[in-house]
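Final paragraph of the annual report: two paired records, presented back to back.
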Amino acid sequence: MKILVTADPELPVPPKLYGGIERIVDLLVTGLQARGHTVGLVAHPDSTSPANQSFSWLGKRSQNKLDAVQNTFTLWSAVKQFQPDIVHSFSRILYLLPLLPSSVPKVMSYQRYPSHSTTSWGVKLAQGSLTFTGCSDYICKIGRNAGGVWHTIHNCVELEKYTFQPKVAPDAPLVFLSRVERIKGAHTAISIAKKTGRSLIIAGNHSTTGEAGQYWQEEIVPHLGKDGIEYIGAVNDVQKNELLGQAAAMIVPIEWEEPFGIVFAEALACGTPVISCPRGALPEIVRQGVDGYLINSIEEAIVAVEKLPNIQRYNCRERVEKYFSADVIVDNYEKIYQKLFT
């Protein structure tokens, strides 16, 4: 099959540091090629993913109206040149607008919250030629309220990049790996670490302006360099693998409904248990008491940290191998393509 895949215009595929959707798109491109498919990619001009044919977005901002018009034209032109059997969008449904009435099968994948209004009109205009996927059952449940056919295909990790660590030191640190903002719960991770007497390594980007910058300055910075709380900044893939592999647990006590969160699967791939909250897709990723603990309070988190020795780290790795590996996810997408193409 000839499959044309699109990614958001802001980041290259694959991303240089963070960019979960862009990582998924890159793994899909390479995985489909390995299975004999011809793959086109519409993405940021700095993308290096080895697609058979690449097209660059003219606009670089998803939320800008002029850029949206330019990118709609870009995708239309790419379809005319590439002549795909399937168009698979990980970008904006608006870019598909001129293509929706056509009979070409289209897949719209959501790694974020789907808009009820745009999803609804997309279903109407496509007249059966548009299929939806969501990165979790949680996202699909929201999407189905607007209509259409939805399939859950979880996000994935490239297993070769993550080294399974069967054991860690008795005094191994807790690790917070995510963007350092309130909804990710870095302040709660600090409280838990202090109350359990565990060291905590914080890694990830943070803002220096606005409400997020104030959060960083007032609720995170005062704790750094004290009581075993350390901030190491952003990390690349190699550093991430080393950081997660040495951790007793990755602790990201979220305060929002997480659509998926690839970092949770990355931690499990290293054999590292996850401590988070039962919100969004987390119950689909972490089995309570098997891959980690989903907690509703600091008190529950303290108990979870104490019970970390009960977790068999092999179970964490096996969870990813069976459900969140690139091969499994590419296979799931391929099955959808085959169903639509026949």
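The closing record of the year follows.
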Amino acid sequence: MKLLVVGASYRTAPVATLERLAVPPTEFTRILDRLVAQPYVSEAVLVSTCNRVEVYAAVSGFHGGLGDICAVLAEQADCSPTALANHLYVHYDAAAVNHVFRVATGLDSMVVGEAQILGQLRDAYHWGTDADSAGRLLHELMQQALRVGKRAHAETGIDRAGQSVVTAALELAATHLDGDLAGRPALVVGAGAMGSLGVATLARLGAGPLSVTNRGADRAVRLAESYGATAVPMAELTAALSTVDIVVAATAAIEPVLTRSVVARALADRDPARGPLVLLDLAVPRDVAAGVAELPGVEVIDIERMAALLAEGPAAGDAAAVEQIVTTEVESFLNWLRGADVAPTVAALRGRADDVVGAELRRLAQRRPDFTDDQRAEVARTVHRVVQRLLHQPTVRVRQLAAEPGGDQYAALLRELFDLEVPQTSPVDTVPEVMETDPAPSTGGEG
């Protein structure tokens, strides 16, 4: 089995495409089931945030696996694989491992170094485990990715600013509000992970009074109570908009919540002397409808605009240090993978040797029925000892060679020389428990 990553992100696809690809939590199991039902895909983990939709897969062939995954993603996006192809990136084997580790460390995030992606990867891993789509190879990959992400944040200052997408978005919003959010009334639309981080970050920045609205009123009440905010019924959204200066929209709705008509009515009741109404749309699919940005007195900051405006993030030295960690860890994982790949071949060789020895001992027993049990046992021990000594050095050496770049050729050569039939299994003998790495909670991050 080989590793394959296929995905689209803010780097390769417009928000409209990411919206069509986005997988809501209620659909995760269905999409994972569709993936592993494909002929070339044996394992799959799905990552879906506001900035990326990616499939990590164990496949039996590159072209077949790529076609299978593209077909499922195109089905999700309701378009043809050809139309989707221009927005996808593909990473295979070593490049796949490198990409997953870069994602885990925050190097591939819109806000470089943000830690919340770790929580989102952990959630994706749990989804794969619960759906039984994360098999032996992806268990190892995901566990190592979570560990590498924690290591990067522990050993470098890449996340010293403590930024998340919400933090970065609010910093951009402040530039439209005299550079300061303190004392600015704010509304958070949505009480999920991103909404919760929005309320927490607004409170930390001194914005207020704070209001929260959500389709599920109970969640809005609980979130509001945690931060001394006010829960507002969704039916009163228009009135609430007319009283605030900043809105963080982060729902899981499949249609825009802040429509042009809703925002226009709120602006009609709002004092224009207060400055612009800043709408932060952190949802995919978008919560702010097309055309709202054209209304006078409104500033809309969405994922697409953030990608264009955000600075590089951490100091070059911190990013370089993390890149070095990733390089080292990728090579370590590949060494493990190469060594694990040859293990079934070595086991098959030893099994073949045992079969040959067993057959010869049975033939000897037929030819020399006069041997006593002790004599038969001594002959058996001697023959087994000779065979094991003959095989020991070659099998040790082939494991060493297999751990080097290009090492897969040695296992293939061994199979060819001894005509071995090796089952195509992933290179781990047992499925580990899901590792609780305690990364940052999956609130915010990439959405």
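Confidence is low (pLDDT under 50) at residues 425-444. This concludes the annual technical report; the extension proposal builds directly on these records.
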